[in-house]
Design brief:
The protein is of the alpha+beta class. It has two domains: 3-177, Formiminotransferase-cyclodeaminase, Chain B, domain 1; 182-291, Alpha-Beta Plaits (2-Layer Sandwich), CATH 3.30.70.670. Helices cover 31% and strands 24% of the residues. The chain has eight helices and eleven strands. Strands 1, 2, 3, 4, 5, 6 and 7 form a seven-stranded mixed β-sheet that branches. Helix 1 runs antiparallel to helix 2 (54-71) and helix 2 packs parallel to helix 3 (100-118). The chain starts with a strand and ends in a 19-residue tail after the last helix.
């Protein structure tokens, strides 16, 4: 059976009724499993993780997107995470018996249908992008929702589907095929956002840090701390322990400590195994020694 994953991001993290309505679209679709969801008021963002058959996943995503577009008004949206639309980004990820090329086709089908139904500009990114520059979602999202009208006048930012003007309340959406990524939020012992931004800049690939790492800084007001939101786009080439140790090194420059971390979404077993191997200094360890992989699912 073909299985794909999707990790859609919606621009809502405060309205519980809207969050539940979006998540119920996944819960109520046969052939789809909602594995995880996270949302909060600091980023004002809902991130869900679903798996299932390609057709069922696409239909559930369209249903959830309809709900988000109906309920979310980007003109009133405020949050610390960059965003350009109510349905901000929808990736298609091959998991079992599915190729990346197939996921490219799934993303194009979803993007075309979403755009046609809502007259919404939709961009294709990563493996689905029409050129190298447009692979980077940060390029497509530059200027965020507030800058969309001006950005869409640029030929390089022309949407792949839909009009070259933003939807008045839902903005625009990016979709595409990509590999598995790991989201890790790292909490720092300082409320100083400028320090956190300097650390984020030091570790991200674009500014000379680690390959495959994207990073941003945010304030966690209720705890009076800052947080690094990190996306690792290739945890094999850049293991999680390496990004954590570089954060530790950079934080020490400002007398700042790492005080905690949390995964945003699901994490592959192999990403955790490399961390265990490093910190326990394991020799000749094999993943087959993890008993859980030998236990069949319920």
């Amino acid at each position: 059976m073909k299985i794909i994953e999707s990790v859609p991001n919606f621009s809502e993290g405060t309205n519980q009724e809207t969050v539940n309505a979006i998540l119920n679209a996944f819960r109520n679709t046969r052939g789809v499993r909602l594995l995880d969801s996270t949302y909060d008021s600091n980023y004002n963002r809902l991130v869900a993780t679903i798996i299932g058959s390609p057709k069922a996943v696409e239909e559930s995503l369209l249903c959830a997107s309809d709900i988000a577009i109906e309920r979310i008004d980007m003109r009133n949206h405020r949050g610390q995470h960059p965003r350009m639309g109510a349905v901000d980004v929808v990736p298609f990820i091959p998991i079992r018996d599915v190729t990346m090329d197939e996921c490219v086709r799934f993303s194009k089908s979803y993007g075309r249908r979403l755009s046609q139904k809502h007259n919404l500009p939709v961009f294709l990114y990563d493996e689905s992008a029409r050129n190298e520059k447009r692979r980077d979602i940060d390029f497509l999202r530059r200027g965020e929702f507030e800058g969309l009208t001006e950005a869409l006048k640029d030929k390089e930012r022309k949407p792949d589907f839909g009009p070259a003007v933003p939807h008045p309340t839902a903005g625009a959406t990016a979709t595409g095929a990509r590999g598995i990524m790991v989201g890790l939020n790292v909490n720092l012992s300082t409320p100083d956002l400028q320090i956190a931004k300097k650390i984020a800049k030091a570790i991200r690939a674009k500014s000379g840090g680690l390959a495959n790492i994207k990073a941003m800084a945010a304030r966690i007001e209720e705890r009076n701390i800052t947080q690094l939101g990190i996306t690792n786009v290739n945890f094999i080439k850049t293991p999680l322990y390496r990004q954590l140790e570089l954060i530790r090194i950079e934080a020490e420059r400002y007398n700042v400590r790492i005080i905690g971390s949390e995964f945003c979404g699901m994490v592959p077993l192999d990403a955790l195994i490399s961390v265990v191997e490093y910190y326990l200094k394991l020799e000749n360890f094999k993943r087959e020694q993890v008993i859980d992989i030998h236990i069949p699912p319920d």
